[in-house]
Amino acid sequence: MEINAVSHIHHAREKVYLAYRDELPSIAHFVNNVQAVNVLSRKDRPGGVTLHNEWVGKGEVPRVAQGIIKPEMLRWDDYAEWDDARSLVEWTIKIRVFSENFKCSGVNRFVEEGPGRTRVNLTGNLELSLKDIPGVPRILAGSIAPQVEKFIVALIKPNLEQTNEAVGKYLDSKR
């Protein structure tokens, strides 16, 4: 399932990019479905940064997915390669359970739209297989998977959009 989101932030691209890259744990409390973002590792390298962040989500799991997704499972690892010269980040999200059944990756591009305006373009893809997951009848795995994908995208996409809004609010507070 494709993930696409476009957001506009009323701050210069460099400020948005650096806040998103370096200050996400401080920004996370502005995002409704996120309890915290924890930096597990950071490696500064020529031309960018390699980050491993842990996202801690919050929210109610829909009834159809409750047999599969437990609230304590709403943690995911975000592996990000920041490319300073191209103002983009390539990311991969990994969940902590049934990780072989879940693939999610994409790119965020930070585009200057004029003085003090940045457009954040997110494109990604999520693939989910419920095959061989305990509690999921084999005969239903194919029909349930799209509903669970929609739930996960419904968690991810608003968080990404809210994160962009939060970056704007965070930068507003620093003026």
Could you give the topology of this structure?
Blueprint: E1 2-9, H1 13-22, H2 24-27, E2 34-45, E3 48-57, E4 75-83, E5 88-95, E6 102-112, E7 118-128, H3 138-173
Antiparallel strand pairs: 1-7, 2-3, 3-4, 4-5, 5-6, 6-7
Helix pairs in contact: 1-3
- The CATH architecture would be 2-Layer Sandwich
C-alpha geometry: elongated
CATH class: Alpha Beta
- What's the gyration radius in Å? 17 Å
Mean of the pLDDT scores? 84
Largest sheet: 7 strands, antiparallel
How many domains, as an integer? 1
Q: Can you identify the CATH superfamily? A: START domain
CATH topology: Alpha-D-Glucose-1,6-Bisphosphate, Chain A, domain 4
Strand content: 35-45%
Strand order of the largest sheet: 1-7-6-5-4-3-2
Number of helices: 3
Uncertain runs: none
Series of secondary-structure elements, N-terminal to C-terminal: EHHEEEEEEH
Helix content: 25-40%
Q: Structural class, judged by helices and strands?
A: alpha+beta
Q: Work out the number of β strands.
A: 7
| Straight-line N-to-C gap | 39 Å
